[in-house]
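S1.2 Input.
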Amino acid sequence: MAKKGPWIRVRKPISKYPETPQQRNVRIGGAMIRARCKGLKDKGFTNCRSEVLQCAFHEDKCDIELKELKDEVKEKIEGT
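S1.3 Output.
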């Protein structure tokens, strides 16, 4: 709520809209990072995260293991 003067102006709630492709890729990337990079610290985690996010946004930059993980995550997200 925004306050202006002695009264309170209530803002309009955010309207629903379909999920964009970028939002979907971010969601897939987050799930892939949780699955693949769990337990890593510092430089190892940063490198793992970079590799996973490249795969989430660019199909051609995935190795076979990451492609399989991405397919699993997509199925799980679409089932939700």
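S1.4 Remarks. The beta strands are 2-4, 7-9.
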